[in-house]
Amino acid sequence: MALCAAMTSTPAVRRPPRKLDAAALERAARHYLERFASSAENLRWVLRRRVERSARAHGTDRAAGARLVDDLVARFQQNGLLDDAHYAAARAAGLARKGGSTRAIRARLRQKGVDRADIDRAIALLTEEFHEPDTAAAAVLVRRRRLGPHRPAPQRAAHRDRDLAALARAGFGYDVARQVIDAPSPEALAAGEA
């Protein structure tokens, strides 16, 4: 028992960041891209945070680090390691499959630094895949959260306003939310009869 108390009372010692050079920055970028899909702007933000931490710890030049980051991101884009259009399309499809509205998908992609043209193309691809992407995504969200037609029949009327509000918070318009929440059954919703 005393050993556990002694172990929990000592504060964790955080190692200082390494001093960054071009090779270390490239290794960090490649390691990040191996673990996460990323837009060019998001990778730029991640690497600039590293440059900032290194500059604070070692007094290195922030402007030189920022130039290295910009050059590295540009080179990765030329080599095809970073492709914002592909990233936006894949991310939009994944978010839609999880029940994300097109409004929420646009906001998420803008947050990751994807430009408007790539976002518009990604949403257009969703429209090609699903005739009405918002209705399909709302149906997924309703199923996941057990709202509307997925609730037991006696509880549906009492929770209707809450269910509509949940879909509104998720970025769905009133017409789509009403159509999905008021579907007669989960089977009818899945068949598109809502």
Mean pLDDT: 91
Helix-strand category: mainly alpha
Largest sheet: none
Terminal residue distance: 61 Å
**Percentage of residues in helical conformation:** over 70%
Radius of gyration from CA coordinates: 23 Å
List the helices and strands in order. HHHHHHHHHHH
Number of strands: 0
- Oligomerization status of the protein chains: single chain
Shape: elongated
Count every helix, treating DSSP H or I runs of 4 or more residues as helices.
11
Strand content: under 5%
- Unreliable residue runs: none
Structural overview:
With 194 residues, this protein is an all-alpha fold. 73% of the residues lie in helices and 0% in strands. It is built from 11 helices and no strands. The protein has helices at 2-9, 22-35, 40-58, 62-79, 84-97, 102-111, 116-129, 133-145, 153-169, 174-181, 186-191. Helix 2 crosses helix 3 (40-58) and helix 8 packs across helix 10 (174-181). It is elongated, with a radius of gyration of 23 Å.
Please describe the topology of this protein.
Blueprint: H1 2-9, H2 22-35, H3 40-58, H4 62-79, H5 84-97, H6 102-111, H7 116-129, H8 133-145, H9 153-169, H10 174-181, H11 186-191
Key traits:
single chain; 194 residues; 11 helices
In short:
The protein is mostly helical. The protein contains 11 helices and no strands. Helix content is 73%, strand content 0%.
